[in-house]
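Course assignment 3, question 2. Fill in each field.
Student: A.L.
Task: Predict the tertiary structure for the chain below.
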Amino acid sequence: MRVVTGAFGYIGRYIARHLLDLGETVRTITTHPDKPDPFGGAIEAFPYNFHQPDKLVATLRGASTLYNTYWIRFEHGGATFEQAVQNTSTLFECAKKARIERIVHISVTNASLESRLPYYRGKALQQQTLIDSGVSYAIVRPTLVFGKEDILVNNIAWLIRKFPVFPIFGSGEYKLQPVYVGDLAAIAVACASDSKSIVLDAVGPETFTFKEFVKLISARIKPSVKLVHVAPAIGVALGQAIGLAVRDVILTRDELRGLMEGMLTSGQAPNGLTRFTEWLEMHKDEVGCSYSSELGRHFR
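Answer field:
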């Protein structure tokens, strides 16, 4: 048996689907066990129970591998990065007590304990907690993850469809390397078959500047949109204004800083197979047709 956190969400859903396709028995731990089940009852769902570790151990017992996707994108409504790190520590401790043989943990490229960005520092603390746990591990660190349920890419496309102009923050020359969520899932599942503890990045086969990335999306769905260079502070302010209208957080200052500092790139050779250009061509008529809410997905 395998346990996947967040199998009713985004990345966890693809990992769970890949495991089911391989004939594995899958159980999920989720913040919202009553969410619509995309697997038709094929997966048992349990709450995280961070405050009741005995119940969490019971949920994990009998599984050989834990695939962990648990994290928060930003602090909101009492959810903090510090608490998320502590919850992760509790999860790994319970996994050890349940005799989990291997933990495959989804992190992010360029996570660092020295980072001044709380998201990336928190991810590094998660990684260190796993390394110190004594359980065999694989830490998989994706770049920018894209797919049908993606929020960032979808909402870039939504903004392009909705407005006559789209902001390019600063020069737009900073780079990103998008990796398909299905490829990330395949990499994560493959990592479970080895007992050696490893850290590796999950990287797509194409590299774009941010400006090239937005141009590519606009060319496929709305060539008439005008790209306008704006100061990063103005871009964040625009995002906050639109966020108020849609009752969501579109982009945080730290997310923009990480993007502009090239945090969504890797020095590792690409190991993802799916090209964003080809995926976008296949999904150009659906991407961005409706807004995807981070708060709606995780906090409401």
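Instructor remarks: Residues 152-176+206-298 form a domain with the UDP-galactose 4-epimerase; domain 1 fold (CATH 3.90.25). The longest strand covers residues 136-142.
Grade: pending
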